[in-house]
Hints:
- By secondary structure, this protein is α/β, with parallel strands linked by helices.
- It has helices at 8-16, 34-46, 84-95, 118-133; strands spanning 19-22, 52-58, 103-108.
Amino acid sequence: GEYEPLKGRALETLHRSTHILTTMAPIADFSRDPVLEFHRQDIESKCRSLKWVGYLSTTSVYGDHQGDWVTEDSETRVSEADPATFRLQAEEAWLSLTRVVPAHVFRLSGIYGPGRSALDSVRKSAILSLLDTGGAGVKSG
């Protein structure tokens, strides 16, 4: 796809922001964080009220620890061929903003990928509910 920077009101809103929390994943054929690719200079120099930035990453950056416990202090073990490499690079790019504004990375588990969205969770819950009750008490329409 084609990626474009924010424009107009959206860009004005970014410039007035006090906090930024992004979940934007590096896009495979773009291999960079699109928010920073287009708006790093805005964030560093035009977001004068900015107090904090946060990036929601994924625990996949830890790589394979072969069944061992992984904590936030564990080393990252991703190969260059692993798509998690782009996430790790995006984390580093967001953390590099600490010279301008406090930045934090949150590594979340199990929220990305097929079948893991909030709507998928609701569907699974509804199906389990139907199975538990045998369909009794479920209204349609």
